[in-house]
Write a structure and sequence with these properties.
six-stranded antiparallel β-sheet, six-stranded mixed β-sheet, 22 helices, alpha+beta
């Protein structure tokens, strides 16, 4: 099997509820209340829509998000069954003085009967209970009223409604907006008293719609929702788009031997809430909640461990250790142990931290490593370590190229300028600052004397324009020097010693499990066959017993015979509900075969009262019809040999004699005697005659003999006889055309209103053709002549 995902039962039911509904106009908040055999769950689901574009059109698709969940283990439909079982065990002891509480077979019988009684009480005020041979061949019969049943249940219904009340109180109250409807799932929710207690949770709320709804099949909704979820994930099916988001049902925590802190997510990654740290434990470890209960899935969690001094960080993933928030079967008292059924989920180490930092030979590590661990929780709630890495600062000596600064220049003035530029950069900057300040202070004066000093300014510009251009500086030369640099390095770490409390199966364990499953399949197949054989036997007993009172059966059987058969049928029925309640299928088959040997002769005689006369009537009609066909056969099929027709005629006479003799013998017997002639025998004996007639009817006429080829006349060699030769050929052509017209004359269509003339011409042409054939010496058989006459007719 290919496991695509794990999905919770309440989320599956919610998916089945919403996948064919529209939520375009308004959202819905639906509570799903599920009572199973030994647990109660109430889940809170939010239905809304999201928009997508397909072929340029906007479409609204539904989506589901499970918001909250409350559950209670230890009570359910089986609890109510045991309430009735314990009540009737006490009643049986009071009536018969025997305690059957320690007799597994008797308790199993009573439990099966009490389950039916509980179902009857769901629709009636009282219900019976009846068990044949409950213990020591004692039949137990009793009854109970619904009010007494409710009283026996005690505070069961109040406890069963508690998860719903907690869920509603935590999610906005009881009005229509907060809770649109409470959908009931599971067989236990059919009990009227339970429904009454669930409605009390919403007592006093102003609502326009009923609180409780039963629009889903309690037995199939979860399985159907899971199948829809799988089909939506698979690429082999085309499903209606429907968003689905499940939540983590239980809190998960991580215990480490180094204190962790939450790491801020990178850009584009999911933001994580600040994890709750419980502080340092007594053993020096630290516990952090990495996945709160009802956290939306999937989820990614980031943890960092700064300034790590150890080579490995030991981690333990486990459930939150509050007893009230643990899954079914998990024992909080087994915390910090590797015992089966404890809170631990998996242990693993993030190792080789110091080894990796020490392996960087050419780097000088200047800081302690910071370890980052990313945990991934997928849509199924399964977790795995996505990555673990360490980052640290390092120093290293790198060779870099720097420009060479030289003091010698080609021109002394340029060299002085260059030195002034290099050595007095600070002074120049200061002077420039002073100039800027002076310019700022004297800005008003300059503006005021612009017109007066225009001539001086033009003169200054002229002087500047006459300055010679500076020569180009020489090319810059570089040299390689060593320089100290820093770098932040990140390396991947090993995740080792991963051990799950519930590890995967080994190859040997897998083989053993596969063998067990095969044995279960074999037993299931045997169980189905046993139940089918038992049902068939039960149906046969009831049907045969009812037919014994039919009028036809009374005509063909004696009262003594019927009483004997009826008594044996009753014994078989008692055995079926008693010692034969759980025997193998072969025993049921043998018992049914034994009963059939008693009833079949009687039922056969009863059915033959009408079947045999009807079969005899049809057989005699068949005989007369066949005799008529055989008399006409020589005329219809003249090509048949007389001995072939005689075979069918002899078979006809033999069948007719068989019918007369056997009918006489059967009529001489009494209706209660064994039959010597049945309708089946009549039909079977007539099959040989039908076979012979079929052979005659399928015989086809033999094909006609081929036509002889006409001799070609030799032409004369001399020109003198050419005219005579041509005349002879013309006459031959005329004769051939006349013969062809005679063959097709009977099939010509009536045209131009001259049917009689054409028919006469056709007959004449046919006669001429016959005469020509005789003159030519052709031999024509009588059969061919008859065929020709029929064609003419």
């Amino acid at each position: 099997i290919t496991v695509l995902a794990l999905v919770s039962d309440h989320a599956s039911a919610a998916l089945q509820y919403g996948i064919d509904k529209e939520f375009t106009n308004a959202t819905q908040n639906v509570v799903f209340y599920d009572m199973g055999a030994d647990s109660v769950k109430a889940s809170y689901a939010h239905f809304s829509t999201f928009k997508t574009k397909e072929l340029g059109k906007t479409k609204h698709n539904g989506q589901l998000e499970v918001k909250d969940l409350r559950y209670l283990d230890g009570i359910g439909g089986a609890t109510l069954d045991m309430v009735l079982v314990e009540h009737f065990i006490k009643e049986f002891k009071e009536k018969h003085g025997k305690d059957i509480s320690n007799v597994p077979r008797a308790v199993a019988k009573l439990k099966k009967a009490c389950k039916k009684t509980k179902e009857i009480l769901s629709a009636n005020n009282d219900a019976p209970v009846s068990v044949e041979g409950l213990h020591d061949d004692i039949d137990f019969r009793s009854s109970i009223k619904r009010n007494a049943f409710v009283k026996l249940a005690g505070d069961f219904f109040e406890k069963a409604a508690a998860p719903l009340k907690e869920l509603v109180d935590a999610n906005g109250g009881t009005n229509d907006t907060a809770v649109t409807v409470v959908e009931l799932i599971g067989g236990g929710t059919r009990v009227p008293e339970l429904q009454s207690y669930l409605e009390k949770v919403f007592k006093g709320a102003k609502r326009e719609t009923p609180v409780l709804g039963r629009h889903m099949d309690g037995d199939e909704s979860v399985a159907l929702g899971a199948a829809l979820h799988a089909a939506n994930m698979s690429t082999s099916f085309r499903m209606r788009k429907f968003g689905f988001s499940d939540t983590a049902m239980f809190e998960m925590q991580l215990t480490t031997d180094v204190e962790p802190v939450m790491k801020a997510p990178k850009k584009g990654e999911e933001a994580t809430e600040a994890a709750t740290t419980t502080g340092e434990n007594e053993d020096g470890t630290w516990t952090k909640t990495v996945l709160p209960a009802f956290k939306r899935l999937p989820s990614r969690r980031f943890l960092t461990f700064p300034n790590v001094t150890v080579d490995a960080i030991n981690m333990l993933m486990h459930y939150g250790r509050k007893a009230s928030s643990l899954p079914t079967g998990v024992d909080a008292s087994l915390a910090n142990t590797s015992a089966f059924g404890g809170t631990d989920i998996a242990r693993f180490d993030v190792s080789s931290i110091q080894n990796l930092t020490a392996s960087t030979d050419k780097y000088n590590v200047t800081s302690l490593p910071k370890v980052s661990v990313t945990l991934q929780f997928d849509t199924s709630g399964m977790f795995f370590v996505e990555k673990a890495e360490a980052s640290f600062d390092t120093e290293y000596i790198a060779k870099v190229r720097v420009p060479i600064i030289r003091n010698e220049t080609v021109n002394a003035t340029d060299a002085a300028d260059a030195n002034a530029t290099d050595d007095n950069a600070t002074d120049t900057t200061a002077e420039d600052d002073d100039v800027v300040a002076a310019d700022a202070d004297n800005a008003t004066d300059v503006n005021a004397t612009t017109d007066d000093n225009a001539t001086d300014a033009n003169a200054t510009k002229a002087k500047k324009a006459k300055k010679p251009k500076k020569p180009k500086p020489p090319p810059i030369e570089y040299e390689t020097v060593e320089k100290l640099k820093t770098r932040r390095m990140t390396v991947q770490l090993d995740v080792s010693n991963l051990y799950y409390t519930y590890p995967s199966l080994s190859q040997k364990q897998f083989g053993e499990a596969y063998k067990r499953l095969k044995d279960i399949d074999k037993r299931e197949a045997a169980k189905k066959r046993r139940e089918a054989a038992k049902n068939t036997l039960e149906t046969f007993i009831l049907s045969a017993g009812g037919k014994l009172a039919d009028e036809e059966v009374e005509l063909v059987s004696t009262e003594e015979t019927r009483e004997d058969v009826r008594a044996q049928l009753m014994d078989a029925e008692d055995w079926l509900y008693g010692d034969g309640d759980s025997v193998e299928a072969d025993v049921y088959d043998a018992k049914q075969a034994e009963l059939k040997n008693l009833t079949e002769p009687i039922m056969l005689r009863a059915s033959e009262l009408t079947a045999r006369p009807e079969a005899m009537k049809k057989a005699l009609a068949f005989v007369e019809e066949t005799r008529t066909k055989l008399e006409k056969m020589p005329t219809l099929k003249p090509y048949l040999k007389p001995e072939e027709i005689k075979v069918a005629t002899d078979e006809l006479e033999a069948y007719e004699k068989y019918l007369a003799d056997m009918d006489e013998k059967q009529n001489a017997l009494k209706p209660t005697d064994e039959l010597v002639l049945t309708s089946k025998m009549i039909y079977k004996r007539g099959q040989q005659l039908s076979k012979e007639m079929k052979l005659l009817n399928e015989r086809k006429a033999p094909p006609p003999p081929p036509k002889p080829k006409a001799d070609k006349k030799k032409k004369n060699a001399t020109n003198v006889n050419a005219t005579d030769a041509n005349a002879t050929e013309a006459e031959a052509d005329s004769a051939e055309s006349t013969e062809s017209e005679s063959e097709g004359g009977g099939e010509e269509k009536v045209e131009d209103g001259e049917p009689e003339a054409k028919e006469a011409d056709g007959d004449a042409a046919a006669d001429d053709a016959d005469a020509s054939s005789e003159k030519a010496g052709e031999k024509t058989t009588t059969h061919d002549g008859d065929e020709l006459k029929r064609k003419r007719n």
